[in-house]
Design goal:
Helix content is about 80%, strand content about 0%. By secondary structure, the protein is an all-alpha fold.
Amino acid sequence: MKAIMKCVAQIGVQVMPAFYEVMAEDIMEVFTHDSVEDVIECLKKGRQGKYGQNYGKFNMIIFMEWMSKHLEVKAQERERKIQNEKKETLSKEQFLDAYVERMNEPTEAEVRFRETAKVVIKSNQVINEHLAKRKK
């Protein structure tokens, strides 16, 4: 909570010190499912003007707008990461498919051996046929 209070205090709005504690408590109550790191990151980016100007004002409504934008950006980044991982996985699968296909292709030596074997088998058939005719 102190980290959130510190970030709220750094926004630059002139308020009574108790305001920081109240805002920190409200933020923690409303955003129970979000991490403290997300809240702090949102406050810092909001303070830097990345979610628009606050014109010297800060309240829960402004923070909720900031947090909405923060979570939207975070979701887009997560989606981009997932898509990149899918592309990488697909690339790995394509590589493996090509490798397996290549492994199934006969080498040049195997092709020559098969061609030679065909010639030898054909020659043996011709010789056997010739010998069979001679025996008759």
